[in-house]
Amino acid sequence: MLGVRDVGLEWDEWACKTRAAAGQLTIRTDVARYPVWPFLGKTTGLLASPPCQAWSMAGKRLGLLDQPLVHQAVADLAAGRDTRAQLLAACKDERSLLAAEPMRYLHALNQHGQPEWVAMEEVPDVLPLWRQYAAILRSWGFSVWTGILNAADFGVPQTRRRAILLASRTRTAEPPPPTHAKLAEPDSLFGPGREKWVSMAEALGWGATDRPVPTVCAGGGSGGGPEPFPSGARKTLTDARDRGTWKPQNAPAEVKSRRKDARWGERGVARECRSAGGPDLACTAEACRWSWSLRSNNQANATVRRADEPAGTLFFGHRANECVWVAEPAGNVLVEDRPAPESIRITAHEAGLLQTFPAAYPWAGNKGQQFSQIGNAVPPRLAAHLLAPHLGKTLNPDDFTLAA
Predict the structure, then answer these.
(1) How far apart, in whole angstroms, are the C-alpha atoms of residue 125 and residue 55?
(2) What gap in Å lies between CA 374 and CA 314, rounded to an integer?
(3) Concatenated DSSP letters for 217-266?
(4) Which residues pair with 327 in a beta bridge?
(5) Do the bridges between strand 215-216 and strand 290-295 make them parallel or antiparallel, or are there none, so unpaired?
(6) Assigned CATH for 7-184+365-399
(7) Most exposed residue of 122, 156, 159, 385, measured as fewest CB within 10 angstroms of its CB?
(8) Least reliable range by pLDDT among 273-287, 307-321, 366-380
(9) What are the extents of the domains in the chain?
């Protein structure tokens, strides 16, 4: 989208295959073992997004215990001393020291007056380490900014907070101006306004209204939102919008006998519910409306957001981080007639859209491998805002067709 060629260094086999399918040049390697000399004299910018699992709230956070060792590694590498082997032996998580790896590249490149700019991303707890990088880069002549940014403020349908470092030799490093806010803000004398945060429903193409969407009618037809599915079904919410009616196998007799002439809520759209082998059913908005929410994981403190809100931070790669859609009543639900739909796992396609990847992005691997890639990625829309100024690009809303 930004018209710039990059070379990726990536350990994960399936991430490499995905990048290859997307036309991105990638070297599959251990970034801690790959030499720097191939890039000397050829590098304009350095992007670094070390693995976050050692530091993430979703993991054991052993990286916090290793933090003094990582700071020591950064200081040593900046001075041209490679003490990684000794420090790694003392780390409680072998991934922790990868957060110091960008300094090895930066030190070597700096000897050749490179790179022109630097952009780095990690979970919020890594901000003190980015500040250490910033002090070193400033001593080398860079302008540097570090801080925490919320991806939702840049049009990503996810309140994903990340520690960011931006540095430049040629311009003042500063964060990009946010384009979105929790509540829409009008234009003023002080600058352009901001749009309301993008909701999951908008990003997934479910339509955005002033009420939680999509809605579901138990046993409903194809005219509304996603449908409920029986236990064990492999269907998804998005499938429901595209494929129409689910027919329950054991509809109660009293449900089968409900009248057919009810209307579907304030829209006045006729809405019929069918049961397998039974007569047409009808339901009113007050009788069988359900709204969908996304639960970010299956832990007790999991973030739960309605579909008309941005998602919480999407974590994947561990069984405890299973992300599911859950249905909640929106009105006077007749529980005996309209049992709540069971929770439904989010699909990799939906997760990719919530990260602002294109709908047809060529994810490689099985579901678990795809989820791991998606959860580890920097949302492309956020990345575009971070990098555009350093690439001499100006973005406007028409440039963002990533999720189209």
Answers:
(1) 7
(2) 9
(3) -TT--TTSSPPP--TT----HHHHHHH-----SS--HHHHTS-S--EEGG
(4) 292
(5) antiparallel
(6) 3.40.50.150
(7) 159
(8) 273-287
(9) 7-184+365-399, 201-354
